[in-house]
Amino acid sequence: MPQLPGWLRLVLADDLAKQQRSISVAEFFEKNKHLLGFDSPTRGVITTIKEAVDNALDACEEAQVLPDIFISIRKTGSDLFRIIVEDNGPGIVPKQVPFVFGKLLYGSRFHQIRQTRGQQGIGISAAVLYAQLTSGLPTIVISRTGVKEQAHRFEIQIKIETNEPDVLKEEAIDWDRIHGTRVQIEFKSTMAAKKKLLEYLKYTSVVNPHARFRVELDEEAFTFERVSQEVIQCPVAIQPHPHGIELGQLKRMVIASDKKLLDFLVEGFSRVGKKTAQEMCDRAGLKGTLKVQGLSADQQKALLAAMQEVSVPAPPTTQCLSPIGEELIRRGLDKEFQMDFVSARTRPSSVFSGHPFVVEAAIGYGGKLPAEGNAIILRFANRVPLMYQQGACAITECITNVNWKSYNLSQQGLPTGPVLILVHVASTNVPFTSESKDAIAGIPEIEKEIVLALQDLGRELKTFLSRRDRSKLAEDRARAVCAIIPEISAKVSEIVEKPLVDTTPIEGKLMRKLIAKKSTRDGKVVIELANYSGFEGEISAYDISADNAADAVPKADFVSEMDGQFTKVWKMTIPSKSTWQVTYSGKGGGIIEIRGIDDNKKMVVDLDV
Amino acid sequence: MSREELEKKAITSLLGIASAWYDQMKAGEIPSISLPSRTKYNIEYDDASEVWKYGDKESLRNAASAKSATHLLKMAYVIGFIKEQLRENRSSTLREMYYISEGWKRAKFSAQDESNYLIEDLEILSDVPREGFHLHPEENGASIYGPMRIREETRRGMKTIHCQDDVGQAGYTIPNSVENIEFVDHDAKFVIAIETGGMYDRLIENGFDEEHNAILVHLKGQPARSTRRMLNRMSMTWDLPILVFTDGDPWSYRIYGSVAYGAIKSAHMSELLATPKAQFLGLRPSDIRDYNLPSDKLTEKDIEALRSELTDPRFATDYWKKEINLQLEMNLKSEQQAFAARGLDFVTKKYLPARLADMGII
After folding, report:
1. Which of A44, A525, B27, B69 has the fewest CB atoms within 10 Å around its CB?
2. What domains sit in chain A, N to C, each tagged with a CATH number?
3. Is B277 in the same domain as B319?
4. Is A522 left (phi over 0), alpha (psi -120 to 50) or beta?
C-alpha cells in the first residue's frame, strides 16, 4: 500500500473514530447467534426449550418441589412456531421478570459456586431476542409466586442497542396455578428436528427421574413420567477455592471487601485456614493486616500467584454437587430404554483447577436397543443432555479410548452393537468448549475419572455377557442335539430293522427337564417321572382317565370321579436325576399333567398316543 | 480269511454297533461309542508283531454335543450304506461314498478326509479292513520294476506277470487289493522303495535293478495302503531286505515311518501294513553333509515337523535322534535328485553301492 500523505491519514483516523463505539451484548449476540445455539431455525426450537426447561428444573430444585413441566409446540403460521413451557416452580417476583427475560447476562447463579443447569443467564433471554428478530413478536411471560399473590402477565422484548428489557404490556391476571412460570415464545423455525427434540426430552427425563414432562407436539401428546418421588437436594453454594480463581474475580472480591487481608483469605475462600492464609501472605510479601481494598494491581497479582502456589486441600464436594446416584440412573434408563443389562457408577468426587466435579456413568446392553451400528451415547453436564457436537466432546473421546474389545464388545472407534453409554459430568464449573454448551473440554482430571468409570462398568458388562453366552451356548447345543438324536434314532432303527425308538427322554435329559411318560402295556398303566430338571420341590401328577387306579402302587393321594372319568393325583418330590413310578391296572388313555414345576422345565410324553 | 468270512464279520460287527445304539436309546440313554484315541500319544510298540499299534487310551464319543451327535449320525448313515452295499454285492470307492453322502442331509460329509477318517474308525471298531466293506481307494497303486514274478487275479482272469520282462518301462502297477496277488518267484537280493518318480526312473534307466538284482518300488510320496501291503508281503513271503530311499526332509522320514512302523492313522492295521524290517537307506542328514549336496534352508514348518518327530514314539531311537538333531543344527534339507549335481550316474555308481555295502546288503 502506498504511503498516504499525513493529512489524509489524520482525516481517516477521524472518520474511523466516529464509527467506533461500544457494542451492546444484545447487538453482539444478534451477529453471533451460533455461539448460543441459535445457528439454525431448527436448532433454535431445541435450544429454546432446553433453556426454558433448564430454568424450570433449577427453579423447582431451589424451591424443593417435584417438577411438573408442560411443553407445547404449535405451528401458528407457515413457518412460525409457538413454544410454551410451563412449570410449577416458585415463580418470579414481577419486578424481576423483565430482567430475567429481557436482559442478556442477567442471572442469579453466575457468581455462585455450586452445580446448576443454567449459569450465565444468557439462555432464555437469547431465545426472547431470537423470537424478536425472526417473528417480531414479543415473548409472553406469566408468573405467580404464591397463593396470596396474583399472577402477572408480561409482554417483553429486548432493546437491542442497550440490552435493557422493553416491557410492552404488564397486567395482573387470574391464573389457575398457585405458583409457577409460563413462557410463550414465538419464532420462525421448522420441525425438522422433532426426533432430536423428543430425544432431548427423553434424555432429560433419564437424568431427572424426579420430574414429569408432558409434551404436546401439534396434535401429538407424550408424557415422560417420574420414577422417583424424592426431591433433589439443592446443591449449596461454596466459597471459591484459591486454586480455581482468576485475576478478574479476585479484583471484584477485593473491591467488594472491607476486610484485612488475612481475614479476607480465611473468610472469602474455601479450605483456607489461618495458617494457610499466613503462608499466602508471606509468599506474596504482604502483611496480613493490610486492608485488601488498598492492594495495588501488582500486589493483587502477587497475591494471586501466592494463592496458586500454596497447597490447599481440595474444595468440599458433597454439598455443592448433586450427582444423580447409581440407583436413580438405573431407574431412569430402565424407564426410557428397555434393556437386558443396566449398571451405573458414581465416582468419588474430585477436583480440577479448584473446581469440584463428579463423574457418573452407566452402561446398558441388549433389549430394545438397535443390534447394529454405533453405541448410543448419552452425554450430560449438570443433568442437562448435550445434544450436539458429539465428536468434539471429551466424553466421546474417552469412550473411544477405552478398549471395549477386552469387554467382549465390538468396536470401531465407538463400541458397536446394542450398547448404550451414559456419562454425566457434574461440576460447579463444567468446562465447555464453547458458550453453546454442547461439548465438554478435554480436562485430564475429568477424562481420567470418565475412563475409570467406563472401565469399571465394562468389566461388569463382560461378566454379564459371558454368563449370557454360556447359557446361550448350552441351550444351542441342547437344541442341536435334540434335532440330531431323532435322526440317529430313525437311521439306527432302520438299520437294525426294529420299531422306531422314542428319543424324547434323551432330549429331556439333555435339555435338563423333568420327563413324565405314560405308557400302557398288557393291561398295566405305568407313569414314570424322570427328573433331570434340577428342581427338587414338591410336584403333583394329575392323571385323568377312565381307570380308577384302585390297585395303584403307590396309592394316589387323591381320587375323584366325574362322569366316569377318574382324576388321580399323586404328590411327590423327586430327587435330582432319579425317577418315580406308579403302576396300576387299566386301559390307559386320558390326560396326564404335571403341576408344581415351571413349564419350561417339564416335558410330558404320552407313549400311547 | 476268505472273502465271504470277511464280509460276514463286517456285517456282524457293524450291525452290532447299530444294535448297541438302539439299546442305549431304548433305555433312554444318550447313544455313545468308545474308540481308541488316534493320536501319536496313543500308539504303542507291540513286541509280538514288531509294529506300532493303538494303545489303551480310548475316547468316548457320545451324542451329548451337536458335533459328536452329528458324528454318530454320519456313522449310522455309513453303516446303513455299507449294509446295503454288502447285501447287493456292489462296491464303491471312498470318493464315491463321499459323493453319495451328498443326499444324507445333516449326515453329509464336509470333506473326503472326514469320510475316510470315519471309515477308518469303522475298521477299528469292527476289526475288518475296508475291503471287507467293499470300499476301496480310487488312487491306483504305485509301480514295481524288478526281477520278480507274480500271479494276479484280474477281472479278466488269472495273469502271470514278470515285473521286468512283461511290463513297460514304467513297471507293474500295484492293484487296489493286494490280497488277490500270488507271489510266484524272484531273483532279487533286496527291494528299494523310492519316494520320487524321478529317482525311480533314474535307477531303471541306469539299469540298477539288473546290475544289483534289485526290485524297485515307486512309493509315489506317502505310500497308499496297497503299496505298503505289497512291501509287507514281499518282506514276509520272500524275506527280502526292504530299503527305503527318500528325500532328506522331515516329511520323507514320515514316509519311512509309515512303511516301517505303520501310520498313526492306520495303526489298527499295522500288522498287515507295516514292514518292521524295512531299513532307512537315505537320504540321511549326514549324507547332505558328507556328500556336500545342494540344499535348501529348513522352513518353519519343517522345523516344527522335525521337533514333532522327536516326540513321536516311532522315532524314539538313538539313530533318529542323532540324525534329526543334526539336521536341526545344519538347518538344511536336500532332495534325492540333488545327487544329479554330481553327475547322473553318481547315485547308482557311487552313493547306493557305498551305502548298501555299508548296510551289509551287498
Report:
1. B27
2. 25-224 (3.30.565.10), 242-309 (1.10.8.50), 326-466 (3.30.230.10), 504-606 (2.60.40.2960)
3. yes
4. left
Co-location of B149 and B247 in the same domain? yes
Interface with A, mutate which of B11, B17, B67, B73 (most A CBs under 10 A): B73
- B22 vs A484: CB contact, 8 Å cut-off? no
Put simply, whether A495 touches B (Cβ < 8 Å) is yes
Same domain, B214 and B70: no
Is the separation of the CB atoms in A409 and A417 below 8 Å?
yes
Q: Answer with the one of B110, B136, B162 that is the final residue of a domain.
A: B136
A503 touches chain B (CB under 8 A): yes
| Count: domains in chain B | 2
Its ipTM equals: 0.74
Residues B21 and B87 in one domain: yes
Task: Give residue-wise pLDDT tens across range B155-213.
Answer: 788 999 999 999 998 899 998 878 888 999 999 999 999 999 999 999 999 999 999 99
C-alpha A606/C-alpha A340 separation (Å) is: 37
> How far is the C-alpha of A515 from the C-alpha of A507, rounded, in Å?
9
User: Are the C-beta atoms of A217 and A195 separated by less than 8 Å?
Assistant: no
The residue among A484, A497, A519 with the most chain B CBs within 10 A of its CB, best to mutate, is: A484
Interatomic CA distance for residues B61 and B67, integer angstroms: 10
Q: Structural domain of residue B205, as residue ranges?
A: 143-358
- Cβ contacts of B28 on chain A, cutoff 8 Å: 505-506, 509, 530
pLDDT at A467 over 60: yes
